[in-house]
Write a structure and sequence with these properties.
two-stranded antiparallel sheet, single chain, globular, mainly alpha, 2% strand
Length: 232
């Protein structure tokens, strides 16, 4: 496999070598225990470089994605998914917000609510990420995660308005974990919500927003396991 470089937000022709001044403690996904142990060295390099692109554009999103990898592995084990399936979920989770490299930093890092126009622009990121990965044969299996992790069980999500079991299974899993982390983690413009509050919000949106069966299993997992170290 050759090197890749992102020429624009919509296509990849080789790996972007970030300048040293850009790499302020970049993520090291290939060093996470067991995270990509089954991936070939070339694919692991591609994944690492793409993750680094996210870090350069938006470190907050990069750290969010790394936390999700830990949670998704735990959730996959609880769901008794195969090692290969969990591997796909980990990679898809790490890169689920890849399309945000196409979004201006003024939107990604805005310290306050987005305008309607800004939010509309932000909602383009699943399509942008899917189009990037469509150029890399080894990443085809994670495209449903990237493209559909903002769909809703009631069909009011984006980008395609899919509903119920039509939403790809992996995307339904990632949507739950993604929302949990987004609510409970601190952000520069707000403090994370308390665990009890997050659980209450998620239970009240079981069915409208998330797969009710998967959500019930996830919430049971959260209530029975210590997650504090991820959010210290």
């Amino acid at each position: 496999m050759g090197t890749f470089e992102v020429r624009n937000a919509w296509s990849i022709t080789g790996i972007h070598q970030a300048r040293p001044e850009q790499c302020l403690t970049p993520p090291q996904p290939t060093k996470q225990p067991g995270c990509f142990a089954e991936a070939g060295s070339s694919l692991a390099l591609v994944i690492s470089r793409l993750a680094n692109l996210i870090w350069v554009k938006d470190p907050i999103t990069a750290v969010h994605s790394q936390r999700l990898v830990t949670l998704i592995e735990q959730f996959g084990q609880v769901l008794a998914l195969s090692p290969a399936h969990r591997q796909r979920l980990r990679i898809g989770t790490l890169l689920h917000d890849l399309g945000k490299i196409s979004i201006p930093k003024t939107i990604l890092l805005k310290p306050g609510p987005l305008t309607t126009a800004e939010y509309t622009r932000l909602k383009n990121h699943p399509l942008a990420g899917a189009q990037i990965c469509s150029q890399i044969p080894e990443l085809q299996e994670i495209i449903p995660i990237i493209l559909h992790h903002h769909e809703r069980w009631d069909g009011r999500g984006y980008p395609n308005g899919l509903s119920s079991v039509i939403i790809p299974f992996d995307a339904r899993i990632v949507a739950i974990v993604d929302a949990f982390d987004a609510m409970i983690a601190d952000r520069p413009y707000r403090q994370g919500l308390a665990l009890d509050e997050v659980l209450t919000i998620m239970r009240s949106n079981s069915g409208p927003q998330w797969d009710p069966d998967l959500l019930a299993i996830f919430l049971q997992m959260i209530e029975s396991q210590a997650i504090a170290p991820l959010y210290a």
